[in-house]
Amino acid sequence: MTPNDSPPAPVAPPPPSLWRLYAVFFNIGAFSFGGGLTGWIFLEVVTVYGWLNEEEFLSGLALGQILPGANVTNLSVYIGQRLRGATGATVCVVGLLTAPFFAVLALYALYDQIVERPWIHAALDGAAAAAIGLLGAVSAMGARRAAAHLWSLAAMAATFIAVGVLRWPLVASVLVIAPLSVAAAWYSQRGQDHA
């Protein structure tokens, strides 16, 4: 290679197989209890496999939270679609929901026999604590990224004050704050592009 030659462009890894997507999302659905799925999906999709980068994941998470339906299901559709199109989206959702579907059917059959057992309550309390920890980790990551921009901090603070302190309706608050936040981000990005 001569000094004037540029290095070859990095080759993007091939997308994961549909079976691999199913297996990863099946494991997430099968072994998570009480929430916290977002943190686990981040760990698998971004950290372990590198299928998406952090920014792509957070964009999907934001999209999943503003769309109707379960956030985790929406996020799974987003990830599957990004990686393998409509078929990938279907495979991710089916993988995520297969084990819980059969677990709910089995637990329904056993509910009357196990509901009064103290170890059931202790196990559920432990699972809930772990889920809160995972959710806190993803929230801290998102807040860290948002803290890089003044307009992001302002949008977070305005939403917290409107919904958490003043108890204004969430939908009305988001309908006002979100367009202002998007406009501020667009204006900031436009200023960086012209600089």
Jot down its keywords.
2 domains; mainly alpha; 78% helix; 195 residues
Structure description:
By secondary structure, the protein is mostly helical. The protein has seven helices and no strands. It folds into two domains: 13-109 and 128-146, no CATH class; 149-195. Helix 1 (18-30) packs antiparallel against helix 2, helix 2 (37-48) crosses helix 4 and helix 2 crosses helix 5.
**Which structural class should the secondary elements be placed in?**
mainly alpha
Report the end-to-end length measured between terminal Cα atoms: 34 Å
Gyration radius over CA: 21 Å
What's the number of domains?
2
| β-sheet strand percentage | under 5%
Helix segment tally: 7
Query: Secondary-structure element sequence?
Result: HHHHHHH
Number of strands: 0
Shape, principal axes of CA atoms: globular
Largest sheet: none
Low-confidence stretches: none
> What proportion of the residues is helical, as a percent range?
over 70%
- What is the residue-averaged pLDDT? 83
What is the secondary structure topology, with strand pairs?
Layout: H1 18-30, H2 37-48, H3 54-66, H4 71-114, H5 118-146, H6 150-165, H7 170-194
Helix pairs in contact: 1-2, 1-4, 2-4, 2-5, 3-4, 6-7
